[in-house]
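Q: Could you predict the 3D structure of Olfactory receptor 56A3-like?
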Amino acid sequence: MIPSNGSSSTEVSEFLLNCFVSSPNWKHWLSVPLSLLFLLAMGANATLLITIRLEASLHEPMYYLLSLLSILDIVLCLTVIPKVLLVFWFDLRPISFSACFLQMFIMNNFLPMESCTFLVMAYDRYVAICHPLRYPSIITDQFVIKAGIFIVMRNTLVTAPIPILSARLHYCGNNIIENCICANLSVSKLSCDNVTLNKIYQLIVAWTLIGSDIILIFVSYTFILRAVMRLKAKGAAAKALSTCSSHFILILFFSTVLLVFIFTHMAKNKVSHDVPVLLNVLHHVIPAALNPIVYGVRTQEIKQGIWRLMKKGQ
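A: Sure. Here are the predicted structure tokens for Olfactory receptor 56A3-like:
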């Protein structure tokens, strides 16, 4: 801890999360919808995972990818939201040095994993629409296993240096993080060292991983739309688009909240500091809560699977 006389000779052993400083009332009204969104995210994703696990008809590559997305959402929510709610409800602001950097690692690793999963799902839809006859031979269980290994390895290897670089910094002064979470730049700027490398590396990683994923996803949908427009059979275009609509809506949830956060952060001199903080928190729970609901509502096979499980439980 920092000594009471203000000396910088003692290393920081914990941080204090000091979110919504200029808008303290946000904590009170935000805690209710945030806790409801958290419960919804946990319940909906757990229901989806159980349904896919128990229903043999859902043991297909597309639903395995959806299961991976649900697992990522659950881990991200559990990493961020409970601590935020503890700060809101009980003012439990301290977070240990190791817990802070563990949270940083998971956030920086799992968010790109989500975007990479969306990319693989976009490829799945591309093959299904543009090469339907080859779909069973291309999108197999082995493909999903290889894609899962690629998703984990790519993002872990590329994002691991972010918390490592931050943890190696010398923290000898202020230990108050002006954020609700241990975001890399919010933490590293408290260091007594030069953090230029941290900033540059995070910027490169963000645009290289998530930026390239989003670009490739929209390129995939460009090819899909072009293929759909060529369909001449009655109702074929509508049917093809309906198979992609759920996935496209999830991508919009993910990318829209993320882009709003990025642009708000870039215009931080024109908006309250609390706005990017709020968006950063919501980005870890809103897509997680809505993703399984969208697929559950719009996918007939999942709805039928949930209904059969409910009937078995009666």
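Q: Anything worth pointing out?
A: Residues 1-9 have pLDDT under 50 and may be disordered.
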